[in-house]
Amino acid sequence: MTTADRLTLIVDWSAASSPGPARPTKDRCWTAASGDVAPRYHRTRAACVAYLLETLRAHSGPALLGFDFPLAHPSFQGEPVLPAGRDLAEMLAVRITDSGDDSNNRFEVAAAINHEICDRFGLDHGPFWGFVGPSGVRPPAGLTATRPACPIPEFRACELELIERGLRPQSAWKLAYPASVGSQTLTGMARLHSILTDAALADRCRVWPFEEPLGREDEIVIAEVWLGLFEFDREPYLSMEHAEIRDARQVMATRDAQAQSAVSRQSKSEGAILGEATIRSDP
Question: Residues near 35 by Cβ (< 8 Å), separated by ≥ 6?
Fold first, then answer.
């Protein structure tokens, strides 16, 4: 896939449990597309996905759709703990209930998956952890508020690469508290399924790095990005609309950087972060 005439569309996802305010704020969904002079704010996940579907349907050429959450989880004992890529999206679309007002059952689903993982590997505790809820409400059985003693790795190989460079990715098992990447993956992959199965887009979609190129000029590559890879506290991001919001600056900077990136045929059971090789190759 070349970068010529490609639509680049980057998504800063949110796992919030209620709609964002009318006034743009942090910790909600933000997007940046080719040609945008400022990022777009979406109050709910449903509104964000509706915009993505509309934008992708209207673009007849190649596209890169980047989400800032993992498309897979760490492996354990040489095998995947959960499905990855398209298969993970399909699994979670059946199990996650994500309403138009962002209320969802992600903690209950994570607790159930923990039970299944424990049964499969003979463990006392599953890898998903973290919980937020109304005062006095405890986590569902099988889920702990803090990280349990679980031998399943916290990070994937691609995240360990970032850590070695002094960066601070969060674990796909972490469901709550700042940077709750695990909740973003659960809700995000469930919503991604609606894009992968959309009547107008399904034949065009490839989930990188799990699937081979489709050999068509209007291919939509769906990939994982990490918004901390690229410098965002500089111009033009400090002077754009919504510059006071870090999420807004990050999504625009990532769009500009990924607009020039190529997508390889690389395949890993744990997935990969698009653009990660950029920092690995630095002296």
Answer: none
Burial zone of 207 (CB within 10 Å; 0-12 exposed, 13-18 middle, 19+ buried): buried
Q: What share of the chain is helix, strand, coil (3-state, %, to 5)?
A: 30, 15, 55
Write the single-letter amino acid at 71. Answer: L
In this structure, are residues 31 and 51 in contact, taking their beta carbons and an 8 Å threshold?
yes
At position 221, the amino acid (one-letter code) is V
Q: For the chain, first and last CA: distance in Å? A: 27
For the full predicted model, state whether its pTM sits above 0.85. yes
| Cα angle 93, 32, 187; round to 5 | 20
Distance of CA 56 to the CA centre of its chain: 18
Per-residue pLDDT of the chain in tens (283 residues, 90 and over written 9) = 455 589 999 999 999 999 999 999 999 999 999 999 999 999 999 999 999 999 999 999 999 999 999 999 999 999 999 999 999 999 999 999 999 999 999 999 999 999 999 999 999 999 999 999 888 889 999 999 999 999 999 999 999 989 998 999 999 999 999 989 999 999 999 999 999 999 999 999 999 999 999 999 999 999 999 998 899 999 999 999 999 999 999 999 999 998 876 676 666 789 999 986 544 333 2
In the chain, the amino acid numbered 185 is T
